[in-house]
Amino acid sequence: MIPVRLEVKNFLAYRSPDPIYFEGIHLACLIGENGAGKSSLLDAITWALWGRARAKRDDDLVHLGQSEMFVQLDFEQEGLTYRVIRKRKAGKRGQGTLDMFVVQPDGELLTMNEPNMRQTQTKIDDILRLDYETFINSAFLQQGKADAFTVKNPADRKRILGEILGLDAWRVYEDRVKRQLRTLRTELSNFDGRLQEIQAELAKEDQ
């Protein structure tokens, strides 16, 4: 996933700053005092993509004194440019929206929304090929949580490493081979049974 453009409004420390364009930036260093909003930019990316950030509640992400927040992220993945727009109204349970588009070369937006937010989120995860937990334990280490991966239990570490290395595809192949082996064993057992029947019939004829 390559970020292209980030736009936020009323998100954490930011009221309505100019959009950030990442094109042409290969290495960047964010410098500023504590509370200036350095980590907020990274939180904006994770919230746009997965609806999750450092705060326990979405309402805590809304800029103080405001009632609605908005994050839009354009990113490239496997040759296509996608746009994700996530909004939230503070204090209104369920008052959130998630929209996803493919940005065509001419700038036209092709909607990729599913019937509900959960299904749209699943589509985003499938396109990215990783979820929030995998992201924050690999590409993005949160402030004060550099050991988040090492303190997880063995099962979670195995799952995260599997997602990072793309082992899910191999599990699909493994399951397919296992099913084929079960089918072959069943057929072999049937052939063996039939062979025994034929041998028994031939033995009777010899008598």
Layout of helices and strands:
Blueprint: E1 2-9, E2 20-21, H1 38-50, E3 68-77, E4 80-89, E5 96-103, E6 109-111, H2 117-128, H3 132-136, H4 154-164, H5 168-206
Antiparallel strand pairs: 1-2, 1-3, 3-4, 4-5, 5-6
Please explain how this structure is put together.
The protein is of the alpha+beta class and 207 residues long. The protein has a domain at 2-129: P-loop containing nucleotide triphosphate hydrolases (Rossmann fold, 3-Layer(aba) Sandwich). 39% of the residues lie in helices and 20% in strands. It is built from five helices and six strands. The termini are far apart. The mean pLDDT is 85.
**What is the strand tally?**
6
Q: Give start-end ranges of low-pLDDT stretches.
A: none
The CATH architecture category of the domain at 2-129 equals 3-Layer(aba) Sandwich
What strand line-up does the widest sheet have?
2-1-3-4-5-6
Strand content: 15-25%
Shape: elongated
Name the helix and strand elements from N-terminus to C-terminus, one letter apiece.
EEHEEEEHHHH
Going by helix content, strand content and strand pairing, the class is: alpha+beta
Specify the CATH homologous superfamily of the domain at 2-129.
P-loop containing nucleotide triphosphate hydrolases
The end-to-end distance, rounded to whole angstroms, is 76 Å
Total of DSSP H or I helical runs spanning 4+ residues:
5
Helicity range of the residues?
25-40%
Rounded Rg: 26 Å
* The level-1 CATH class of the domain at 2-129: Alpha Beta
Q: Determine the CATH topology of the domain at 2-129.
A: Rossmann fold
